[in-house]
Design brief:
Layout: E1 12-13, E2 23-24, H1 25-34, E3 37-53, E4 56-69, E5 72-73, E6 76-87, E7 90-100
Length: 104
Amino acid sequence: MVSTFRNPARSRIPQSVSAGQDFWLHEFINDVKSGTLKLESSKYADMKVQAADVEMTVVTYCSTDKRNYKGKDISGDYRSIDVFAKRGGRWQVIVSQGTKIATQ
């Protein structure tokens, strides 16, 4: 997704599906469940996985997405980064941030 996720215990999302807009994790989840945010398709490219250490991994990639938020088409190319950490024996997304690449 095109949002920044943090550990659900923290619940703050600094980057949303709409540039410059902040919102909370529960709002994001509600938007997905209600269909307010729709991701119809996504093609990934240029994926790189880097192990920061044995319990943290950083993944960067580009995607071409077809998506809609509150009736507005926000489709396009995105550059994203996901950070995973192993906690309690499970891999969890700590931060996931995506930014739409501006078109000329």
